[in-house]
Write a structure and sequence with these properties.
Enoyl-ACP_Rdtase_NADH, oxidoreductase, single chain, lipid biosynthesis, SDR_fam, binds 1,4-dihydronicotinamide adenine dinucleotide, six-stranded parallel sheet, alpha/beta, fatty acid biosynthesis, Rossmann fold
Length: 270
């Protein structure tokens, strides 16, 4: 059901790779709520061509940008502002990748070149996007930026590997930049810490099936889906949440505050 929550608003959606992507669902929901969009992803992801389907559905241009490149991010912002003839009201940050995870290198043995690359894509990219947005006055007053995080930023989930560090920094950047952007232009910045979700990035984590089933049993409401995550993020882009900023907001069916559930205890036996 649509409520016209984003009528007249304009936004940039990073990181829609395929129909499973959280960003894909956010783009669909934002469009349904009346927003106009620009879609972006790394040039290599665009070559797969899937994003064109979403672009057509949302009537949105696609502008390629590798989030580790200053030039690409500047170009994205310039072209977006030309397209909209002005700034945007919201941004979804969803790029993430860990080479150590991909190559199955355990956390204690991480290769630092890989660590740097993953950090650049998954955490520093939020700072880069915000820095270039601020320089170009690309986010309108009372704009909203949301980045996606995971509870491994606070608690240990061994196979999440160096992505745990990346998420901790991502949340810190949201908090710190949230201060500066709030003072400068009343722009709010939050992270949404989502349940494990079956996507390309999610499924790359070793033991993901066990991970997702455990979280399901440990959450009073069960795991939150990508569609439900999109619903939540749309409210954060809307004018109904103008005073929420610098927060890490759990969207996880209660997982983060649950010590244990009967379902898990019962599995432990005597
Ligand atoms: P996904 O694989 O669909 O999205 C990750 C995106 O990052 C892809 O679109 C990929 O092309 C993009 N990307 C990678 N390198 C890039 C680069 N250099 N420049 C620009 N874009 C780049 O997976 P998902 O799960 O939808 O991920 C979205 C966000 O949600 C990520 O931040 C992820 O860590 C986060 N998240 C995912 C959870 C899960 O269980 N799937 C749980 C909590 C958070």
């Amino acid at each position: 059901m649509a409520y016209n929550l984003l009528k007249g608003k304009k936004g940039i959606i990073f990181g829609a790779l395929n129909e499973q992507s959280i960003a894909w669902k956010v783009a669909q929901r934002a469009h349904e709520e009346g927003a106009e969009l620009v879609l972006t992803n790394a040039p290599i992801a665009l070559r797969m061509g899937e994003l064109n389907k979403l672009a057509e559905e949302c009537n949105a241009p696609v502008i390629g940008a590798d989030v580790t490149s200053n030039d690409d991010v500047q170009n994205l912002i310039t072209k977006t502002m030309e397209h909209f003839n002005g700034g945007v009201d919201f941004i979804l940050h969803a790029p993430a990748m860990s080479v150590n995870v991909r190559k199955g290198i355990r956390y204690p043995e991480n290769n630092y070149e890989f660590t740097h690359k993953g950090f650049d894509i998954s955490a520093l990219s939020l700072h880069r996007v915000l820095q270039f947005a601020m320089k170009n006055k690309a986010i309108n007053e009372w704009g909203s930026v949301v980045a996606l995080s995971y509870i491994a930023a606070q608690r240990v989930f061994p196979d999440y590997n160096d992505m745990a560090d990346n998420k901790a920094v991502l949340e810190s950047i949201a908090r710190n930049f949230g201060y500066y952007y709030g003072v400068e232009n009343k722009v709010r910045i939050n992270t949404v810490s989502q349940s494990p979700t079956r996507t390309t990035a999610g499924s790359g984590v070793k033991g993901f099936d066990g991970f997702i089933n455990y979280a399901e049993k440990m959450s009073p409401l069960g795991n939150a889906t990508a569609d439900q995550c999109a619903d939540y993020i749309v409210t954060l882009f809307s004018d109904l949440t103008r005073m929420v900023t610098m927060q890490n907001l759990f969207h996880d069916g209660g997982f983060s505050y649950t010590g244990v559930t009967e379902a898990v205890i019962n599995q432990m036996g005597e």
